[in-house]
Amino acid sequence: MTSALPPCPECRSPYAYEAGSLLTCPECGHEWSADAAPESGAEVRDSVGNLLVDGDTVTVIKDLKLKGSSQVIKVGTKVRGIRLVDGDHDIDCRLPGVGQIGLKSQFVKKVTD
User: Fold this and answer.
1) Which residues pair with 93 in a beta bridge?
2) What is d(CA 113, CA 70) in angstroms, rounded to the nearest whole number?
3) CATH number of the domain that 59 lies in?
4) Angstrom distance (rounded) from CA 113 to CA 95
C-alpha cells in the first residue's frame, strides 16, 4: 500500500496521514498543512547531504571572503537560526559583527546535537 501523501518535511517519513485539515507524521509528530507541503525539488541540503530546515544551526566549512569587504568568515563559525530562501544563496542568516548575509548551502554543515 503506497500513500499518495507527501513525506514528512522534517524526517522524510513516508507514513504521513491526514488528521483533519493537517498532515501528521507518526514518527516525529510534525504537523503541516497539505497546501504548504514542500515540492520535491525544494529541498535544501548542506555540504554532506543533511536536509536543512528553517531555524537550524550550521557551521561554515570553508573560509569565506565577504564581497566588497576585507572581512572573512572563518571555518567553524557557528550560524544559528538560519532561514531558507529561494535563489543562488539559499540561506539567509545574521552573523555577529557582520550583519545580515546570504550563504550557499554547499559551504555549511548542519550541527547535530
Assistant:
1) 101
2) 33
3) 2.30.30.40
4) 21
Q: Which tens digit of pLDDT belongs to each residue from 3-19?
A: 577 888 777 788 888 88
Place of cell 559551504: 107
Sign of the CA dihedral running 59, 63, 67, 69: positive
At 68-110, the pLDDT tens digits run: 888 999 999 999 999 998 888 999 999 988 899 999 999 999 9
**Is 20 found in the same domain as 60?**
no
User: SS3 of 94, please?
Assistant: strand
Residue 93: which of 84, 71, 34 has the closest Cα?
A: 84
Bridge-partner residues for 60, per DSSP? Answer: 108
Supply the pTM of this predicted model: 0.61
CA 42 to chain centre: 10
69 and 25, same structural domain?
Answer: no
